[in-house]
């Protein structure tokens, strides 16, 4: 059962997302908060598997809450999925840099939201497809989230780990990567678990962003796309 915490300052949104997720047989909404302060209090007492947070909330905003729950200082990190009406780049950047594992617009269809919660709970990042290319291009230009440089990665990652990261950055699931490399899914999960701390990131999504920043892969449609790769 996936335990979900929901935080949004709009009553209708809170009720709608809670009803949507509670209706799923593998999900249990364990807390509903109207502001960021309440969200943090509930997170401490309900032990959620995923926190679905609005970005703009009173008391403490969603980015601040995400940082407390999923950032590098979090003792027991909680995967965070941001749900927001705002698709401004700075909000997306702030959420990802705070440690969020996913970012969706609230007008996403219900099935997409449900799938995103499952993906984040499973340790997979997700981001609204309408934002992906723009966000990746901007991250590349801003050079953020680079605790390890591309040159150092050559010495830190094994050849197989680089293969996994390359395929991860193509948007492949663990199962698809396993098929591509002809290995067990459990082996892929083990590689990913080793890659994240080596790169100094907390989520698969941040590992993908790192891969684009360090030119392991190129942003789709960019001039570098034909030259990047393993």
UniProtKB/TrEMBL annotation:
A molecular function (GO) term: DNA binding
Modified residues (4-aspartylphosphate): 54
Keyword annotations from UniProtKB, A to Z: DNA-binding, Phosphoprotein, Transcription, Transcription regulation
Gene3D superfamilies, sorted: 3.40.50.2300
SUPFAM superfamilies with a match to the protein in the record: C-terminal effector domain of the bipartite response regulators, CheY-like
Domain of life, source organism: Bacteria
Name the UniProt record assigns to this protein: DNA-binding response regulator
Organism: Tersicoccus solisilvae
Lineage: Bacteria, Bacillati, Actinomycetota, Actinomycetes, Micrococcales
């Amino acid at each position: 059962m996936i335990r979900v915490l929901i935080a949004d300052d709009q009553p209708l949104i809170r009720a709608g997302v809670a009803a949507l997720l509670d209706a799923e047989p593998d999900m249990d909404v364990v807390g509903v908060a109207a502001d960021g302060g309440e969200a943090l209090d509930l997170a401490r007492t309900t032990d959620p598997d995923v926190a679905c947070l609005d970005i703009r909330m009173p008391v403490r905003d969603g980015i601040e809450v995400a940082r407390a729950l999923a950032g590098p200082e979090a003792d027991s990190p909680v995967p965070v999925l941001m749900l927001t009406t705002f698709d401004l780049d700075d909000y997306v950047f702030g959420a990802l840099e705070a440690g969020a594992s996913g970012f969706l617009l609230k007008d996403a269809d219900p099935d997409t939201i449900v799938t995103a919660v499952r993906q984040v709970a499973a340790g997979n990042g997700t981001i609204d497809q309408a934002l992906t290319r723009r966000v990746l291009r901007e991250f590349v230009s801003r050079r953020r989230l680079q605790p390890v440089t591309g040159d150092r990665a050559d010495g830190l990652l094994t050849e197989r780990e680089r293969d996994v990261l390359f395929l991860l950055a193509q948007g492949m699931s663990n199962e698809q990567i396993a098929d591509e490399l002809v290995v067990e899914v459990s082996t892929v999960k083990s590689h990913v678990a080793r890659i994240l701390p080596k790169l100094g990131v907390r989520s698969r999504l941040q590992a993908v962003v790192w891969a684009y920043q360090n030119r392991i892969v190129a942003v789709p449609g960019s001039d570098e796309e034909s030259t990047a790769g393993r």
